[in-house]
């Protein structure tokens, strides 16, 4: 009885608030919200596709209610420019879910921090120090080590007599590169030995990531409807235990690093070393150091593997493009040496392949939500203070009004017109734009391009036996980042001398 009365009260409050908002503001159109839950029950699992479908009915700017919170979704480059440039100062804050608030310790990191003195300070640290061209170049041997390790693993597996002609699960190899690269960049540690065995800290690291994903998924309604959080008290306990577990592991690794530095006196280039060196200059708290390290891990681990898997799926579906990229590699690199990042300027078509994959398959198809710190107007509609604003990057990358034949995988479009993808051209936004643009964009571009270049230079790729290229499943799995719904299975055929399939290991 009490619960029924409580729900009835919440319904009345929600309806009254909704009517008040509609009378006071000219909100963007959208599907009719239900009491209490808003549009949560109407949203299909692959949200960015759902929002694109709704945009065809209601227009390119939508009102979508997540419980009592208004989310404004924009789906064109013109509206994205208004959000990310024209009204950027009013829309640069973050909406933090309960899990994001807990894991960022109230926004003391970079990703979930509101725009203000802390964000400006930490952003400056990332731009001038952590992701500077000098540091990216210093860390290049780690990236090339991990990419050549991937090539060696694929070569061993595909030349094994038991596997001859069999398709491989490409995601396994891509994920290993992403995991080893980001943990070495962040912590200066490789948790996996040369035989592929993962150590105790590595197992704990992976378990923490898996548990974080599990908690995020279990929050469900409680994440969007604060009124219902009292019904899930155990989730608060789980968040607290998870955050403490994550902190313990990070502090243990940081302490190991500190002891090693004192013992050897070596200056390292990876991020934990940089943060220790710069903590006094930038007045960094322990919470901020831990938050920044995990920002880099969460942002950098899945996204590179996702981008390369989608790109390889497109290359297998489009053998003409695969062959053209290999012809460029053969002409510039040749059959007797390895490609390195220094070769990128001479490989324009390869760079266009990476860019075209990021246009069609941005790893984060909906930008993380911006929060309005004041009432603003977007596209002629009101966006009230504290509303969330999302940019549908996936829809913009497929907009026929700005892209010719938008569903075709055609890298040549970027030779015909050089389109910036680091936040200056609002038609292509895989890394965002404005005050919240991803500071690690160049690092991600370098790694994705390197992985693609090595995969194409070392192997010719065909679909799984019995599958025609056009039958590859190109649907997305639900989630904030977009893995392929069905893992890509592909048959590699080596195309270089056997001595070029060895890992180029480096200890740093």
TrEMBL record:
<dbReference type="GO" id="GO:0020037">
    <property type="term" value="F:heme binding"/>
</dbReference>
<dbReference type="InterPro" id="IPR001128">
    <property type="entry name" value="Cyt_P450"/>
</dbReference>
<keyword id="KW-0349">Heme</keyword>
<dbReference type="GO" id="GO:0004497">
    <property type="term" value="F:monooxygenase activity"/>
</dbReference>
<protein>
    <submittedName>
        <fullName>Cytochrome P450 98A2 like</fullName>
    </submittedName>
</protein>
<keyword id="KW-0812">Transmembrane</keyword>
<dbReference type="InterPro" id="IPR017972">
    <property type="entry name" value="Cyt_P450_CS"/>
</dbReference>
<keyword id="KW-0408">Iron</keyword>
<keyword id="KW-0472">Membrane</keyword>
<comment type="similarity">
    <text>Belongs to the cytochrome P450 family.</text>
</comment>
<keyword id="KW-0503">Monooxygenase</keyword>
<dbReference type="Pfam" id="PF00067">
    <property type="entry name" value="p450"/>
</dbReference>
<dbReference type="GO" id="GO:0016705">
    <property type="term" value="F:oxidoreductase activity, acting on paired donors, with incorporation or reduction of molecular oxygen"/>
</dbReference>
<dbReference type="GO" id="GO:0005506">
    <property type="term" value="F:iron ion binding"/>
</dbReference>
<feature type="binding site" description="axial binding residue">
    <location>
        <position position="438"/>
    </location>
    <ligand>
        <name>heme</name>
    </ligand>
</feature>
<dbReference type="InterPro" id="IPR002401">
    <property type="entry name" value="Cyt_P450_E_grp-I"/>
</dbReference>
<keyword id="KW-0479">Metal-binding</keyword>
<dbReference type="GO" id="GO:0016020">
    <property type="term" value="C:membrane"/>
</dbReference>
<keyword id="KW-1133">Transmembrane helix</keyword>
<keyword id="KW-0560">Oxidoreductase</keyword>
<dbReference type="InterPro" id="IPR036396">
    <property type="entry name" value="Cyt_P450_sf"/>
</dbReference>
